[in-house]
Amino acid sequence: MSSKQNDQAEALRQAIEDVTEHQPEESEQTEEDKHETTEHTKIEVDILNLPPRNEVHKDNRKMRIKLNLPLLRFLFIVVLLLILAGVIIWFI
Q: What does pTM read for this prediction?
């Protein structure tokens, strides 16, 4: 059993070595390049001049129907009755 654990540990060590070998290649960017990329990704937001939440979300109110179990049962029975009435009318 100890040889099996050693094999697992060796596989993990190899995976860690592979990851650490690739890190220096990725970090070859100069500090100027890093600074330029972070400048482009920054979005400046003045948090003191933000509008109130109710103004921001006022237009985004959507009518949502909450379907709970009694309502679903009622709709199911209504649909069944409509189908039954349609079948009765069709054959009479």
A: 0.32
